[in-house]
Amino acid sequence: MCIDIDMAAAWRAEPADTVAFVATTGGDGTIASRSCPNINFFERRKSADAYRAVHVELVGTVLTLSDAVARGRLVFEGLLD
Fold first, then answer.
1. Which domain holds residue 10?
2. Which among 24, 49, 76, 81 has the fewest CB atoms less than 10 Å away?
3. Are 61 and 21 in contact (CB under 8 A)?
């Protein structure tokens, strides 16, 4: 798997249908400590759904890579300026 995202949020992925499972554990701690370790990429949605089924402690959603990039921009854009 290869994911390439540039600063303008242009992206490409191999395979093209790569998805992201974006999750959190809930509870105490910073959002970074609860969420960042739980962002995982999968080559297909079926694999992400299987991972989510095994990790019932995580609350999250499977996103297309396009949606994941858009959400990432909302959260992080401007932090690295």
1. 2-76
2. 81
3. yes
Query: With b meaning 16 or more CB within 10 Å and e meaning fewer, what string describes 40-79?
Result: bbbeeeeebeeebeeeeebebebbebeebbeebeeeeeee
How many whole angstroms separate alpha carbon 44 and alpha carbon 73?
Answer: 23
Distance of CA 9 to the CA centre of its chain: 14
Quick check: is 81 in a domain? no
Looking at this protein, which amino acid is placed at residue 48?
A
pTM, entire model: 0.81
Please state the domain count of the chain. 1
pLDDT digits (tens, 9 = 90+) for 15-49: 989 999 999 887 788 877 888 888 999 999 999 99
